[in-house]
UniProtKB/TrEMBL annotation:
Source species of the chain: Arthrobacter sedimenti
Lineage: Bacteria, Bacillati, Actinomycetota, Actinomycetes, Micrococcales
UniProt xrefs under Pfam families: Aldedh
Domain Aldehyde dehydrogenase: 31-490
Protein keywords: Oxidoreductase
EC number(s) reported in the record: 1.2.1.-
PROSITE patterns per record: ALDEHYDE_DEHYDR_CYS, ALDEHYDE_DEHYDR_GLU
GO molecular function: oxidoreductase activity
Protein name: NAD-dependent succinate-semialdehyde dehydrogenase
Amino acid sequence: MTVTAQPAVTAERETRLLASVPTGLLINGEWRDAASGKTFDVEDPATGKVLLSIADAGPEDGAAALDAAAAAQESWAKVPPRERGEILRRAFDMVTERAEDFALLMTLEMGKPLAEARGEVTYGAEFLRWFSEEAVRAFGRYSVSPDGKSRLLVTKKPVGPCLLITPWNFPLAMATRKIAPAVAAGCTMVLKSANLTPLTSQLFAAVMQEAGLPAGVLNVIPTSTAGATTGPLIKDSRLRKLSFTGSTEVGRRLLADASENVLRTSMELGGNAPFLVFEDADLDAAVTGAMAAKLRNMGEACTAANRFIVHESVAGEFAEKFAAKMKEMTTARGTEPESKVGPLIDGKSRDKVHELVSDALASGAKAVLGGAPVEGPGYFYQPTILSGVAEGTRILSEEIFGPVAPIITFSSEDEAVRLANNTEYGLVAYVFTKDINRGIRMGEKLETGMLGLNAGVISNAAAPFGGVKQSGLGREGGLEGIEEYLYTQYIGIADPYAS
Ligand SMILES: NC(=O)c1ccc[n+]([C@@H]2O[C@H](COP(=O)([O-])OP(=O)(O)OC[C@H]3O[C@@H](n4cnc5c(N)ncnc54)[C@H](O)[C@@H]3O)[C@@H](O)[C@H]2O)c1
Ligand SMILES: O=CCCC(=O)O
């Protein structure tokens, strides 16, 4: 495996890369037009220019994709686990070899700075490597019943055809985090990629084909009509699982739809992460962590720190040091070498960010830095810090999804915990303290699926990613990730000594 050097970004390279992206639907191993012949445009959020038009799946295409997945399920489940793992391992090598292509494509369609996109390639590819290793470890067990009169054989089997729905913010990693464990477990799939960033999934699906994935195992249906195209699939009895990553609002609706067939579901939903800085924290480390937890992906991450809850004795110094670092962050198209903060995904998202900031300012908060959209083309927003944000302000209860850090203060550990848990979300929390006992106590008291202790980014293919409360159900990655695509079957065996 060779990792490519970092070639310069030129208009020709962009054009060549875009020309290599399949623009059709992938159904039963073939790229084809939508039955309606319709296409939709994918835009560069930094310039508003159309990058590519791709096939726009409708209900008929969705049905064809599920037909293919259902038809391939039985034979795919019989493919030896080692072979499934080897396909994933080849895909890992191929994505790594084409890292620069994947990174540039993500920067073009999603906006993140190229350096961050490279980071996502590493992160996203790691799910392929991790699950290539997990494919051969879906162990069951054999035991003697407590009364000794029978034997218990417990096996793991693939759940069957899955519908995977992914968001726009991590175009590669959110796809590989679902596809890799499904492949490892022996499930077939229909992937509905995000309509704002479908291109990375298109290229990745082509890589999976090249890596040897049989026809029908992965079917890809980008669409501009998500509900109409995937709704019938969720109600089709051949579908056995829905794995969704996206907003809590949409997840809640899909869960209701999935209840009709009592579908197995995984839900990776929204977050409202608290970032706690205690009075004994190493403030420089806390600021480094805050920069990562806030500005990774321009704040467009479910794991983004949404509320900075800082002890009153260090809040002023923390805000000052944080602002000094934030000031160094240049907003520019992600392909520009100086870019540290790319554009937000679209005008609607930027308006929502500004609405939350304006509401906080009107409620008495102070802008330590920023506080407005960036003039000119693209959906850029100034890196922003707000201090003196009052409890109950909207910005503390809604996902910001932008480079904005509201600071609220506390005076006791109990108050910090109360503020942190005061949300319907429960994805991740960050805690900065030098007191290890306090760190452990926070792990016990904070209602989140994940905790970063003196760390601002904890995403890792080897770790179980997921939330509690309205942040979702199930886990992706880690030892747990493959379990989401397996069901347990128990076979009771009569006493082998009975005559
Ligand atoms: N917990 C996690 O792991 C995680 C990871 C990334 C993003 N997110 C969350 O995702 C959200 C941002 O992503 P988004 O704006 O793409 O979310 P979204 O809920 O709007 O869309 C997510 C996906 O669902 C599709 N969709 C929308 N309506 C649908 C419907 N009726 N039927 C079927 N599919 C439908 C979209 O086209 C997209 O592919 C944030 O809330 C963020 O926190 C969570
Ligand atoms: O947006 C949420 C996913 C972020 C991650 O996997 O680190």
